[in-house]
Write a structure and sequence with these properties.
mainly alpha; Hypothetical protein af1432; about 55% helix; binds fe (ii) ion
């Protein structure tokens, strides 16, 4: 069991998850954009929901605002509502069959963190807008361009790089959820031990790559923080597994 520097346990947290028919402890989320995401972009909604659940639990152990973390997770890709045909996971969660895209589409992908942040600033969620704007940092966008397309000005997201632990968490968890989901989609079942091993190796790989690219150096997020969040990831993932993943659109949206 991991203990904090003050000796208190950080693994006793039972996260309130966003699953059908259950009401997490934070009031009600009844936001039209999230309802629209659930209805029109089921894959993105489920990705955001899973990111939100992990964000809340990780924020709890790192002692940053869990509600901010949860809302940041839920809304971080809200701009994908405007580009449903572009983001392949948007409708059904499928990442297979990724097709090459045009230069204009490529640039839309690069701008989605800023456009999501702009929406949040308009919605009075400015407390989390910076973290959302930074959720891809200046990472490389690996989308493939159609043959003969002009070369983009840059293949990297415009950033800025995460400037807070909240933003670093969002960047890590966003990647983690996408990689884990892709791996799990290839499996029929997975046991608790294997899930733990997989979680550990994905997080370590993400950490190594982000460090190489210096994505997190302004955020204050440390390797020790990464070790603290691993056990609660397993708690959340198992809780999700036990509840079986909800069909998008049927989930009770609560805040
Ligand atoms: Fe994103
Ligand atoms: Fe995302």
């Amino acid at each position: 069991m991991i203990k904090s520097s003050t000796g208190t346990s950080r693994t006793a947290f039972r996260p309130p998850l966003l699953v059908p028919g259950k009401t997490p402890r934070f009031g009600t989320v009844d936001h039209p954009l999230i309802a629209k995401l659930a209805k029109d972009a089921a894959g993105t909604f489920n990705h955001c929901r899973r990111v939100a659940n992990l964000m809340m639990a990780a924020a709890f152990v790192l002692r940053i605002d869990s509600l901010d973390a949860w809302v940041a997770g839920l809304f971080h890709d809200i701009s994908k509502l405007d580009d449903q045909d572009l983001f392949l996971e948007a409708k059904d969660g499928s990442r297979s069959g990724r097709k090459p895209i045009t230069l204009e589409q490529f640039n839309r992908i690069l701008s989605h963190p800023r456009r999501a942040a702009d929406k949040l600033r308009c919605l009075d969620f400015s407390r989390i807008a910076d973290a959302v704007e930074q959720h891809h940092g200046t990472a490389l966008c690996r989308a493939e361009l159609v043959e003969g397309s002009p070369e983009p000005e840059t293949r990297n997201y415009p950033g800025p790089r995460p400037s807070s632990k909240l933003a670093a968490l969002l960047m890590i968890i966003d990647q983690f959820e996408a990689i884990l989901n892709a791996k799990l989609s290839l499996l029929k079942t997975i046991g608790k031990t294997d899930l733990g091993t997989m979680t550990n190796s994905i997080l370590e790989e993400i950490w190594t790559n982000m460090n190489k690219e210096k994505q997190l150096e302004l955020s204050g997020f440390t390797y020790q923080d990464l070790q603290f969040i691993k056990p609660v990831f397993i708690v959340v993932l198992n809780e999700e597994r036990l509840n079986s993943l909800p069909t998008a659109g049927k989930a009770l949206l609560v805040w």
